[in-house]
Design goal:
elongated; single chain; five-stranded parallel sheet; six-stranded antiparallel barrel; alpha+beta
Length: 409
């Protein structure tokens, strides 16, 4: 009779972490997790190319919060209670060791996302969480007499709950969003946050796979600027220099229907003037060498050949034949190339959105609704998103853990 009924809607990272945290913190809680599909932890499975980028090696809450285009202010306090160091310890305590890669991303040492899935499923089972797949939640009503909730399930059943966690992800058709709105919550419209840029340009044609260790990117006419590794793909440009730009510019780029001018500096150690001076030095040092066979600015040779052609320099031209106007044009191609972006693609199979429940309507100490006591949110249900590198999963672990602990109190 003293059991507390806790319902978790959504079988992803945030939902599982919330369910486990609640059940482990209070064995008197009877926790049931509902997943509408047959697939649990689907995003965990595909994350990081199937390796699962669990979190990021950033253990200072304020620095960590700066990696979130939306939600950083609210997460600063949340990260002081559960942050990547706690995530590492949580998995270690359950037999999963994480490793750090040079860029700070953290993966299981097995390099296999199934390791994380098995850990979460095992922890849920051990904590007594009942997991129901192919069983979604159609609607939720408040029960005035008890202060709890009545859930209408897609199977035709009904279920009761004293506490309710919505963690159904950021898809605009999410049942969680409909339930939140029915309880009076406002939603910031979901739009894609991590995506690559479609560019059809002769300078990039047939260069798929060429990467640049560090490039600077900017959206022309806006304050949006980023830098980092960049990758040429079959359809345009990707890599952190693009993905971070897409995250910070998610709403603005959606308003522009993903049609905009992208400015790229392929060698950000140089600007137009210092690049021109370096090219003049190269001309003096190797006058007889062909321009296309030597890239003094550190640009990969296949890309360098395209930039040389775009500057109007013949493929077999020796350095000594290139005049100052052509060197200026080449310096501009390297340090301030402009590309017309016409559309976007998902980053691999990963789908991250900005948008969700308005953050001012949520108590971030408990991840509880300020409008409906006993209703909690976690993960992409909230208007929170991070840049690429494990930050979105960390937001899921943190918000799920805090919500779960609060429901257990």
């Amino acid at each position: 009779m003293n059991e507390r009924q806790v319902s978790v809607v959504g079988g992803g990272a945030a939902g599982f972490f919330g369910a486990i945290a609640c059940a482990e913190a209070n064995p008197a809680c009877r926790v049931t997790l509902y997943e509408a599909t047959a697939h649990l932890l689907a995003k965990v499975k595909i994350s990081g190319g199937g390796r699962c980028n669990v979190t990021h090696h950033c253990f200072e809450p304020r620095d960590l919060a700066r990696r979130y285009p939306r939600g950083g202010r609210e997460l600063t306090g949340a990260f002081s209670r559960f942050q990547p160091r706690d995530t590492v310890a949580w998995f270690a305590a359950r037999g999963v060791t994480l490793k750090t890669e040079p860029d700070g991303r953290m993966f299981p040492v097995t390099d296999n996302s199934q390791t994380i899935i098995d850990c979460l499923l095992g922890a849920a089972r051990q904590a007594g969480v009942q997991v129901r797949t192919q069983c979604g939640v159609k609607s939720v009503l408040r029960v005035p007499t008890s202060g709890g909730f009545r859930l209408e399930l897609t199977t035709g059943e009904e279920a009761g709950a004293d506490r309710l966690l919505l963690a159904t992800g950021g898809n605009k058709s999410s049942a969680g969003f409909a339930i939140a709105q029915a309880f009076g919550h406002h939603l910031e419209a979901p739009v894609p946050s991590l995506f690559t840029f479609h560019i059809d340009d002769p300078r990039l044609k047939d260069l798929a796979g060429v990467s640049v260790e560090d490039a600077a990117t900017a959206v022309a006419g806006t304050p949006l600027k980023e830098h980092g590794p960049m990758l040429v793909t079959h359809w345009g440009l990707s890599g952190p220099a693009v993905l971070k730009l897409s995250a910070w510019g998610a709403r603005l780029l959606a308003e522009r229907d993903y049609q905009f001018a992208l400015r790229v500096n392929w060698a950000p150690k140089f600007n137009a003037e210092t690049a021109r001076a370096e090219l003049e030095r190269a001309r003096g040092a190797e006058p007889r060498k062909q321009v296309t066979t030597w890239s003094p600015l550190g640009v990969p040779l296949r890309l360098w050949e395209r930039l040389v052609a775009a500057a109007g320099i013949a493929a077999n031209a020796p350095w000594t034949s290139v005049g100052n106007p052509a060197l200026r044009a080449l310096a501009a191609q390297v340090t301030d190339a402009e590309f017309a972006v016409k559309g976007k693609s998902l980053f691999k199979d990963e789908f991250v959105t900005c948008g969700g429940v308005r953050l001012s309507e949520v108590d971030f100490k408990r991840l509880e609704s300020r409008l409906v006591p006993g209703l909690h949110f976690a993960g992409e249900m909230l208007d929170i998103d991070g840049v690429t590198g494990g930050f979105n999963f960390q937001a899921a672990w943190t918000t799920g853990w805090l919500a779960g602990r609060a429901m257990a109190e």
